[in-house]
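Office hours follow-up: a student asked to see two folded examples consecutively, so here they are.
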Amino acid sequence: MSDTLSLTRIDADLLARLMDKVSEFGATGDGGIDRPALTDAHKAARDWFAGEMRARGYRVLVDDIGNLFGQLDLAGPGAPLVMIGSHLDSQPRGGRFDGAYGVVAALAAIETFRREAADGGTAPRCNYAVADWMNEEGARFQPSLLGSSVFAGAIDRDWALARADRDGRTVEQELGRTGYRGSDPAPRPDLYLEIHIEGDARMERAGARIAPFVRHWGALKVRIEMTGEQNHTGPTPMEDRRDAVLGAAHVIAFVRELADTAADTLFTSVARVDISPNSPNIVPGRAVLFCELRAPEAAMLEWSEARLRDALPGLAAKARVTAEIVAVDRRDAGRFDPRLVALTEAVADDFGHARMRLDTIGGHDAVALNAVMPAIVVAVPSAGGVIHRNDEYTSPEDLAAGGDVLVEMIRRIDAAGGDLDKAARP
């Protein structure tokens, strides 16, 4: 084990101050936040964060899909660029740590490294960038990971700009309204680091403080439109009703049954149903279901999609309605860079932090970037495994421990001149 006195520890006071401040934007009064992408609360958080970066000498950039960056050139032209970040948007009535921790920890980590390098007379060998990705959550605009996927070339920019929310407002319109339809060339990093809370209780149960994600599960986001016939809920005979929501209920139950037949290898949900006209006195004529199928292997996703497609006509017929799959967003499964996994583990060991390896079932911006560069997500525990809820909580000690690991990873990558093989070497 390395001498712990020689390890770089994050400025925990700076991290705590940034975390407290960002939690004010969209605060719900019960510990949570409500800050979906491109809302006024999201704009306010981004404006504040951009100001924090400018005040510290970062070059603030906004690209044409609304990703926000702060670039700091410590080593000069041609040096490797290390990017660290996450997202400031949230779920409706979500938690204050998801995403935001990764963004403010990125700034605190770079600032800590920058100060210690200056104090020690060490010339940095890499340049740095903080990233706040636009619409990671996919709560207001679908699909999720929108900004990072455009950045990585997985999604067409014009298609992304045309995504609309429930009220018909497009990403392009809302970027313009909030002042985040930029035109700056995005930084092109050589690697990407992200730190995040984990939405599972396994770390807490195991007593682990640090967990590099080794694999990311694939996902299918399937939008299904059920079409029936609008009618009065009173006089319309039961046998004559073509209830789109009844058809939706059959599909929802089937999607759960799929997961039950493939325990621990397939996770499913239908977490949103848009009903039209959504009146208590009208048999609904239309329902749109937002289904998710998640699995670590492509074969399982293919099997579950085929089962769903085969079952849809019969499920719809039970309610005398029709069903159509109108959109499928696909995210491939994969593995994060093994050198970054090894580096995370070596740093955690040197700090004496208990660690474990995990898969990530949820999506992260690092998943999109992992297709085009070395990337990783490092997790710290969330109390009770709670995420996407107002009582989401990670202790200051665990936040700081994750920050310590992040800044020490930066230091070792910088000392290696951005060479991950060298940085990960024991």
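And the second, which I mentioned at the end of office hours:
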Amino acid sequence: MSKVIQFPADERASPWDKQQAEAFRELEGPLLDCVRMAGIASRLMSDVDGLDEQLVFAIFHTKDMLEDLLSTYIAGFKAGRE
């Protein structure tokens, strides 16, 4: 059985800070879902010939942008834990 360690609450954090932190944490699931869907779309598009070049660019660029956003999110999360 694992033991849960209770850390003392940070008394310096304002209600606004706590609300922002919770909102930040709640983004993780939807963000990961978006990254996965963009990856699936880009993989499916790579198997199809004769697609509109702008559509291909939009899908692949969206995938890259979402992956960059996820990296930024993870870096922010890790920075907040230090």
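Two things to take away from it. DSSP finds three helices and no strands in the chain. The CA atoms of residues 49 and 56 lie 11 Å apart.
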